[in-house]
Amino acid sequence: MILLSQYYSDSLSAERLRRCYEIAPPRVARYLEAEIEHVLAKIKSSDTVLELGCGYGRVIGRLLGKARKVVGIDTSKASLEQAKKDLQHQSKLDLAQMNAVNLGFTDGCFDVVICIQNGISAFKVDQEDLILESLRVIQDGGTCLFSSYSDGFWEHRLEWFHLQASEGLIGEIDMRKTGNGCIVCNDGFQATTLSSEDFSELVSRIGVTATIAEVDESSIFCEIRV
After folding, report:
1. What's the CA gap between 73 and 137, in Å, rounded?
2. CA 194 to CA 151: how far, in whole Å?
3. If one looks up domain 4-150+195-225 in CATH, what number appears?
4. Of 113, 108, 130, nearest to 42 (Cα)?
5. Is the pLDDT of residue 134 over 50?
6. Which one-letter DSSP state was computed for residue 153?
7. Long-range contacts of residues 122-126, Cβ cutoff 8 Å, at least 24 apart
8. What does the CA dihedral 51, 97, 94, 127 come to, rounded to 10 degrees?
9. In the chain, pLDDT over 70 holds for what percent of residues?
10. Domain boundaries, the chain
11. Is the confidence at residue 13, as pLDDT, over 90?
């Protein structure tokens, strides 16, 4: 059984990860687009942006059209190689294999750090460490953006995961253990979420303030300005 922290590196990467998004139902596709549009609205043309968990570059391609410089990091070598192939000859893009809680960047070198599509849960790292490390690399006046799923999006999310399971991209969903925002598969994979209350408690423990808002009735965004 694959460790949860290695799932996206060893089992669900590159073309397999891309396929998850290709089969997204219309309502899920709308959710994914709404997330990107929300992020793009926070980025200026002069910004240097870091995406945590960039995967095969699904979001980076859109960021490149708005930001001055984009850096993407991921733990999956296969996904990063796919991103390099798909986004070749982009002079304002850098990609690196790196853990989001141990970033190899100097303090305050980014204007915006984004961690969307439930990365704060999917990475399976300490969430306080993830936020603190993101804040470390943000310069004064910069913004960190984290997102998770809205409670009201549960049925659409579950449908999407059933489709992924039916194609063998993830294990069969164990409906006895699935519920309350958590999807459990028989291969050991678990997809959890953070609610608005969870985000509020998390940033309170860290000692920072944040704006928490629902977007498109599908995602919860936590925005921290430095």
Report:
1. 13
2. 9
3. 3.40.50.150
4. 113
5. yes
6. G
7. 122/8, 122/53, 122/191, 123/5, 123/52, 123/53, 124/4, 124/5, 124/7, 125/5, 125/99, 125/100, 125/101, 126/101
8. 20
9. 95
10. 4-150+195-225
11. no
